[in-house]
Amino acid sequence: MENFSPLTQKTLSGMPILLDSIVLSVEQLKETFLPIYEELEKLLNENLPSKFQLTDWERGVIYLFSDEYKRRYLPSPQAYAEIRYKLVMEQNLKRSPTKFEILFGYLCDDGQVYDGKQNVVYFQLNDNSEKLLDKELLDSIKPNIPETWRTGIEDDYSSVWIEFDIDETLSVDKVNQCAKDFKEHVLKPVLDKLKK
Fold this sequence. Notes:
Blueprint lengths: L5 H8 L1 H33 L4 E13 L15 E12 L6 E12 L8 E10 L7 H7 L8 E4 L5 E7 L6 H24 L1
Antiparallel strand pairs: 1-2, 2-3, 3-4, 4-6, 5-6
């Protein structure tokens, strides 16, 4: 039987320090993201028509090695970590329900869970009813988003997001500015459309 590699030996011997570092980093991210969550929730409550209600939420759920929640057995762990915040708003009309969600947080994926490698802070709006986002609205939104951020729109116009890569320029101010631009240039135009 082959012995443990030097990398495995170093990693396992340094695991307590590594785990402490991860916990401290996650706590700092959560301290930054929680006020953003509260601001978004307040913005939605103040600006959505009264028929909408918050139907589902996540406030800093942490996923490690898998994007499945409460998975007890990992047959093959993946290089994946996410701190996710989610607000799902729904208008319950029998003939034309409207449902959308705001997702944001931190995502690190080696490409096994999502397409392409990512190590980003992201803010995303998903249209789960296919009635909220359309080409016209997204074409009017995208040019207004500052070029500081990477932006994306799903081919079927069901989602729009802004994000930035994690590097040495990461700061609380940078996360807050990205959140502010998401609110101003993505969320507010969508809320304006819902008021019509």
